[in-house]
Design a protein that fits this description.
The complex is a heterodimer. Chain A contains eleven helices and two strands; from the N terminus they run ααααββααααααα. By secondary structure, chain A is an all-alpha fold. Classes of the chains: A mainly alpha, B alpha/beta. The structure holds adenosine-5'-triphosphate (ATP) and magnesium ion.
Chain lengths: ~290, ~240
């Protein structure tokens, strides 16, 4: 594998991890809930995106619809389920979330939704491929990298420059106190779910296009992989999630290209997780 | 003292329970606009529980809290803050990973006029000049006393009508205790009503107009500051013997 390929794979895979995991991180930051059902929201995004793409042939409409519907599903999960468990021991929403994930995924496998098949998502030529002196970036990867770069910029701006971002940070440190300085927690948390879930929905579409495949159980691997990322990132830290996404992707890509014949990708991810937890239980960037 | 002023806060037979433990057994009290009132009580008397119920962090099992004529017994804390309440909670609870200035900005979260925010920040910096020197410092790296000042500053940023203060002097050096009570005194002179929860009765009775003594979740004594200072029971329990 050339250096260029390692770099490109790392950036692509890291971007995907980040887009999926950042919503989990945001939810964990404020509610301290391990929101496993987030992976089903990602699948919903892929499914909605594909349906709209088939109807309209327009990738942008598909992406927008996926983000809107996923965002709405995320808010619904918060207001309809977690909202009633905020004062319960954390094991209650955790178990609920596992149940919710399995329930949603089972539903998605019904023939009237996604069925038990893989569906092609033929939107690979929306972006031009990019030829640089060192090599070529295929169009699906251009799309993922551009979207991730934009998302990073927007998130950074929202978290550091806006009132809402400051409120999210405060709520992640001390939720009750944030309420007492005047943050409407119901609204702030709903918006937190809205944004995180919309990004997961977008990730579903991008991954679906990248692998040209969308299916009801595509959330399986992300459901636990995203946890590797948020644990490595230090639980609830958005910047830690960025770092962990790309570091994990780098470790996977490098190890895969050297010892890939013994260790498959997901085994590598969990090996990294276990090693890090043995020596830095607070995560790579956690204090 | 109360007669000629509007009652700002009325607490009426408030009952708060934690599971099987009953922390408040029907507490009633009043604070008038601009008035400073103390709640004295030993460890575990229920002082912080009372503050939590006023802020909206615990929901009472019975009784009512009325603020400026509105029943806020079940209102979420941000609505109470909108009505003019602010709190300096037990231990300060500053936002640990944010800077001093960001903490103060959050105190003024509901104030959308930037000029007024800047004005209040100036005021806080005059009250506690050390906060100005450290305005870019992350709150968790402040000393305990500085964090208490920041917690007061954050509450002042709201521009409150009624400030709830829970054991702000705890763990502070005597000189800092003086500075903190001077600041409370100044707020009072500017018309802010205060409800001060304290074990440090000596300093508290210097600032307040009236006070209540809370024991095992019940008000057992009420009176003006001077009445309480003269009371043998208060002297025994809270003024170091008498
Ligand atoms: N979260 C809780 N769960 C169970 N019991 C509690 C809880 N918080 C307080 N209590 C109990 O309620 C009673 C009153 O506690 P509270 O914190 O109001 O006392 P306090 O007067 O503020 O004491 P201190 O001076 O030590 O701060 C105590 O008996 C305490 O053990
Ligand atoms: Mg207390």
């Amino acid at each position: 594998m050339t250096l260029w390929n390692i770099l490109l794979d790392t950036l692509t895979q890291g971007s995907i991890y980040f887009l999926i995991a950042v919503g989990l991180t945001m939810v964990y930051g404020i509610l301290k809930i391990l929101h496993i059902a987030h992976a089903a929201v990602y699948t919903v995004g892929a499914g909605v995106g594909l349906a709209v793409f088939r109807l309209t042939g327009n990738f942008w409409a598909a992406l927008a619809a996926a983000m809107v519907v996923s965002g709405a599903v995320g808010v619904l999960i918060y207001r309809g389920v977690y909202f009633y468990m905020l004062d319960q021991p954390r094991i209650v929403p955790l178990i609920t979330s596992v149940g919710l994930f399995l329930l949603m995924q089972d539903l998605l496998q019904k023939p009237y939704l996604m069925g038990p098949y893989q569906h092609a998502f033929p939107a690979q030529d929306v972006f031009p491929s990019l030829t640089l002196p060192w090599g070529t970036v295929p169009s699906a990867q251009v799309m993922i990298l551009v979207f991730t770069a934009l998302t990073l910029g927007v998130l950074y701006g929202v978290f550091t420059r806006t009132r809402l971002g400051l409120a999210w940070q405060a709520a992640a440190m001390d939720r009750d106190m944030a309420g007492a300085v005047g943050v409407n927690l119901n609204r702030a948390i709903a918006l937190n779910f809205l944004l995180g879930s919309a990004l997961a929905g977008a990730a579903g579409v991008l991954v679906g296009v990248f692998y040209n495949s969308v299916y009801a159980t595509m959330g399986d691997v992300p459901s636990y992989k995203a946890f590797v990322v948020i644990v490595l990132g230090g639980m609830g830290s958005v910047s830690g999630t960025v770092a962990a996404s790309f570091l994990l992707a780098l470790a996977e890509t490098v190890l895969l290209s050297s010892v890939g014949y013994v260790l498959p990708r997901d085994a590598i991810a969990f090996l990294v997780l276990i090693l890090v937890l043995m020596f830095r239980p607070q995560g790579l960037l956690g204090r | 003292m109360t007669d000629n002023r509007q009652p700002l806060l009325t607490v009426d037979h408030l009952v708060v329970t934690y599971g099987h433990i009953q922390a408040l057994h029907g507490v009633s009290l009043q604070v008038a606009a601009g008035e400073a009132v103390a709640i004295l009580g030993a460890n575990g008397a229920g002082k912080s529980t009372l503050i939590r119920a006023l802020v909206g962090w615990v929901i009472p099992a019975a009784g009512r809290v009325v603020y400026a004529g509105r029943d806020i017994t079940h209102a979420p804390s941000w609505e109470r803050t909108r009505l003019g309440l602010a709190v300096v909670p037990e231990g300060g609870r500053v936002f640990r990973d944010l800077s001093v200035e960001e903490n103060l900005r959050l105190g003024a979260y509901l104030e959308t006029n930037p000029a007024r925010v800047a004005e209040r920040m100036d005021y806080v910096y005059r009250l506690f000049p050390v906060l100005k020197e450290r305005r870019r410092q992350i709150a968790r790296t402040l000393s305990g006393g500085e964090q208490q000042m920041l917690a007061i500053g954050r509450a002042v940023m709201r521009g409150p009508q009624l400030l709830l203060v829970d054991e702000v002097s705890m763990g502070l050096a005597p000189l800092l205790v003086d500075a903190v009570f001077d600041a409370l005194q100044q707020l009072k002179e500017e018309g802010v009503a205060l409800l001060i929860v304290e074990q440090n009765a000596y300093e508290t009775l210097r600032v307040v107009d009236r006070g209540y003594v809370l024991e095992n979740g019940r008000i057992v004594l009420a009176g003006t500051a001077s009445e309480l200072r003269e009371n043998p029971r208060v002297q025994m329990a809270y003024l170091g013997g008498g």
